[in-house]
Amino acid sequence: MRKIAILLLGAAACALQAKAPAVFAIRDARIVTVSGPVLERGTVLIRDGLIQAVGVDVAVPPEAWVIEGKGLTVYPGLIDALSTLGIAEAATAAAPATRTSARAPTPSPTPAPAQTPATPSVTTQPARGPEDRPSNTSWVRAADLISPADRRIETARNAGFTTAVTFPPRGIFAGQGAVISLAGEKAGQMVISSPAGLYLTVSTAGFASFPGSLMGVLAYIRQIFLDTQQYRLAQDAYAAHPLGAKRPAYDRALEGVLESPRVLLPATRAVELDRMVRFGAELKKKVVLYGAHEAYRATDVLRASGTPVLVSLKWPERSRDADPEEEEPARVLEMRERAPSAPAALAKAGVVFALYSDGLATPRELIRAVRRALDAGLSQADAVRAFTLSAAQIYGVADRLGSIDKGKIANLVVTTGDLFQEKTQVKHIFIDGIKFEPTPEQPEEVTR
Amino acid sequence: MKLHWILMLAAAPMLAAPPTVIRNANVLTVTKGRFQGSILVRDGKIVEAGEKVLVPEGARVIDASGQYVMPGIIDAHSHIASESTNEGSISVSSMVTMKDVLNPEDIAIYRALAGGVTTALILHGSANAIGGVCLPIKMRWGKDAQAIVVDGYKPVLKMALGENPKRSGVRQIGVAIPPRYPATRMGVEDVIREAFTKAVAYRQSWRDYEAKVKRGEKPLPPRRDLKLEPLVDALEGRSLVHVHCYRADEILMILRLADEFGFQVKALIHVLEGYKVAKEIAAHKATATAFSDWWAYKMEAIDAIPYNATLMMRKGVLVSLNSDSAELMRHLNQEAAKTIKYGGATEDEALAMITINAAKQLDLDHRIGSIEPGKDADLVIYDKHPLSNYAKVQKVLIDGEVYFDRDRDVSERSAQEARRKALLEKAKELQKKSGPPSTRRPS
């Protein structure tokens, strides 16, 4: 026990200073590389936080700490493709989203990520138009907000997550995401890539402040992107010939848009997916759609446009406070029934997709949600890919994450069997080459 | 060579669906009188309509013996099929467009179809002096948001006067809303004048820019302003202006304001006191889209009379009747019939108010609104005369395609109910498997 503690300390220290090598070898394990074929019996060698070698005949150096992999399976660490992990403020702001987007018989309008307060960032003066930049913190970077102290990180690790793409949660232009490792002494060590994308929501402020409607939000976003083009022209022109020219004003809201490599737009229902594919094309940026519960009906438009999607694992369900007498339309019932078939449909159509936990916290909840997708036709391999390589591809970090390949970051999860099976246990988690053991899960809390 | 033949054979059915003939019908053309005969439809258009029409080989025949065919009903004012109602935060919200928020899966589309409506102008609400850009859709139930939009349509800029934009009654909603300018009718006028003054300046800034470019200079383009662009479109006649209004004074105000800035008010919406200023409306070449007999629901509706539509019509104003309601939309034929009682409209005049006149207000009368060769085959078949209370819609065709069939609807009901039940059963099963949902506790 003590030995392990020392080892862990040592490994952490190594990662910090990158001086003394920290070497692990997982020997004779089943290795799901994701990028290539499954190795039924192979070895993964980890050194200094990176995967040094993977294969069937990898020599284990004497300095390596050896993990006997018989009966174990090694996967790339899972990536939660849209979350607020690491942003402690998001964990405490627990107000559920109340939104005023649709009059239509909408089963569930695209939810903001878990625990997003509905009210846009507090403005003392009601906004009178796009010029006031309401509900806009596009310049805020998740990389600057994260803290290793967020207690949700450990829970996510226990479920096999080693990596998360995390976003500032508030507002229409919420801010820039970051790809982070789910461990680290200091926040800065956790960041793998930033900015990872601009997170947009359609939260509205009703009659009180612009924008107060879905059409207002879309018009606002459109105007901001037009303003950004204009801003760049003006800034470039001034930089080229400042002498005798009027200085254009600095605008942080537009700076944020300029620096974002991609935008995330909400789209849960088929109508929304169709709408946002077309709307996204206007923005002249890479677009990723999130929500996607009814994507099983929108695969054509998604494939034709080449839009990747993030599917929320929080499957739609009848509200706990729903009127038991209320008759629900067949369409609502159908979406509830079929939403878990969205990943399978996307895989079949060849649409790149990843999955995200959407606030499902415990490993048990998560497995249950993934199992529903598997029962609805998603293959085990496609499920693993969605949690690993596809997520890495969508965020442009497949050159360092998402599969077990030489040179990639040593974010791995070692299990006693196939992932997403009730009986399978997570044995070890490697994050940046540092080994973690999952903490035992609390028995499911029963509240009646 | 052979391959070409195969390709042509394969493509042929897609290019040309078999023609359709509606036979033995009482045809109410609206613009060309009434006759007993047939209508030939090919490639989504009416090809021929007359007492004797040759049935081409392979044509699909709809026998309408004893039934009535009229052009699809056009509703010039509807709020169905959209996921936004009001951008109520500001008085000039012309950056919004209904095209962004269409919901082709709104069940109201199907219900409108069942009431004989084939085209409707989809508008946002009337919370703003200048609202946003609206557009007409056809009730192509089952198609996506792009496909329900009327191709080649002219956008409509909606404005609103009176109590709604000045926010009378907002306090009754009981929500703390910060006060918003304007609070009076004169304020509404001021807001519109200011907005158009800005639009004129905006248009000038682009003209100046283009002139400079022409001279070979390389100036920075003006900032594109999505709020002012629709106003410039209205000034340039690229869009149609529809104005929500009630009282005679505000109707005269907007006509004067339009003349001042040089834009055309295409249609006055609701226009409850239009009968008082019908001559002035006609002089501006504005049209009116009214209710048949809705009144007394708020202060500014106090002087409404059911004779409004026919009185305006007799003074030379083109009048249509609209629904403004997903329910009323389903029996606009009955609304039209009321103009016969109130004011003595003829049958054709009554039917025109829900067809060709509305088409004119959308600049779509070359395409829809009457049964004439060359027009879109948007047709409704009723079992009785559509101006009868007892008339029921039997079939609705849009672009020659049957989108509503009463028999099919009735026969499919039990299957749909079974599907619903099956879904409920499945949901129950799932609930059993995953245990009862945890209940939220007060904390």
**What is the general shape of chain B?**
globular
- CATH structural fold name of the largest domain in chain A: TIM Barrel
Number of strands of chain B: 16
User: Averaging pLDDT over every residue of chain B, what do you get?
Assistant: 93
Low-confidence segments of chain B: 1-14
Can you name the CATH architecture of the largest domain in chain B?
Alpha-Beta Barrel
What's the domain count of chain A? 2
Q: What count of domains describes the coordinates of chain B?
A: 2
- Report the radius of gyration of chain A as a whole number of Å: 23 Å
Rounded radius of gyration of chain B (Å): 25 Å
**Coarse structural class of chain A:** alpha/beta
The quaternary organization reads as: heterodimer
What is the CATH architecture descriptor of the largest domain in chain A? Alpha-Beta Barrel
Estimated share of beta-strand residues of chain A: 15-25%
Largest sheet of chain A: 8 strands, mixed
- Can you give the helix content of chain A as a percent range? 25-40%
Portion of residues within helices of chain B: 25-40%
- How much strand content do the residues of chain B show? 15-25%
The mean pLDDT of chain A is 88
